[in-house]
Design goal:
The chain is of the alpha/beta class and about 170 residues long. It has one domain: Rossmann fold. The protein contains 7 helices and 8 strands. Strands 1, 2, 3, 4, 5 and 6 form a 6-stranded mixed β-sheet that branches. α1 packs across α7. It is globular. The two termini are about 10 Å apart. The model has no long low-confidence stretch (mean pLDDT about 90).
Length: about 170
C-alpha cells in the first residue's frame, strides 16, 4: 500500500505554513504521496500512513487549533508514525536555547508522551512588524524581540529529508 503523508499546521501569519509547505515538498520529492493542509481543512485521517503536525508558538503555547487537533486525534496518531514541529523564536542561535529549554508546550506533553512522536523539532520563525496588530507591535518593541525572518531552511530541509528516509 502506498504511503500517504499528511503535513498539517496551524499558523497565524503564514510563516509556519511556509515551513509545512517546504516539509511537504521534500517528502514528495522522495516519491511519497503528500498532502499539505491547514489543520482547519483536515477531515478524515484514515487515508494517511504518517502525520507531520506543526504549529506556530506564541508565549510558549501552540495555536488553539493545533491543540484541538492533537487532542481530537490522539488515538489515531498513537498508531502511526508521527512527527511534531513548532516555529516561533526569532534571533540568532539555537531556538531551544533562545526559549530557555522549551521544546514543546508543557500542557500538551502528556498527549505527546502517549502519541510518542518519532521526533519533535523546533524551528526559528518570522517576525514581520507590518503584519502585527498595534498591541503586538507594542509588545514586540517592549521586549525588544528581534525582527525579521530567522527560519533555517537547511535545518528544515534536513529534518524533512529524515522523515522521508524513515518512511521509505
Amino acid at each position: 500500500m502506498e504511503t500517504r503523508v499528511l503535513v498539517t499546521y496551524a499558523t497565524k501569519y503564514g510563516a509556519t505554513a511556509e515551513i509545512a509547505e517546504k516539509i511537504g515538498k521534500i517528502i514528495l520529492q522522495a516519491s511519497l504521496q503528500t498532502d499539505v493542509l491547514p489543520i482547519v481543512s483536515v477531515g478524515d485521517l484514515s487515508p494517511y500512513k504518517a502525520i507531520v503536525l506543526g504549529s506556530a508558538v506564541y508565549v510558549g503555547q501552540w495555536r488553539k487549533e493545533a491543540v484541538a487537533f492533537l487532542e481530537a486525534n490522539e488515538r489515531t496518531m498513537a498508531k502511526l508514525p508521527v512527527w511534531f514541529f513548532s516555529s516561533g523564536p526569532t534571533g540568532e542561535g539555537d531556538p531551544v536555547q533562545l526559549m530557555q529549554g522549551w521544546r514543546f508546550p508543557e500542557a500538551q506533553q502528556p498527549i505527546a508522551d502517549r502519541v510518542q512522536p518519532r521526533d519533535i523539532a523546533f524551528f526559528h520563525g518570522v517576525l514581520d512588524m507590518e503584519k502585527l496588530s498595534l498591541a503586538e507591535k507594542l509588545l514586540i518593541k517592549g521586549i525588544k524581540a528581534p525582527v525579521g525572518d530567522f527560519r533555517d531552511w537547511d535545518a528544515i530541509t534536513s529534518w524533512a529529508a529524515s522523515i522521508a528516509a524513515a518512511l521509505k
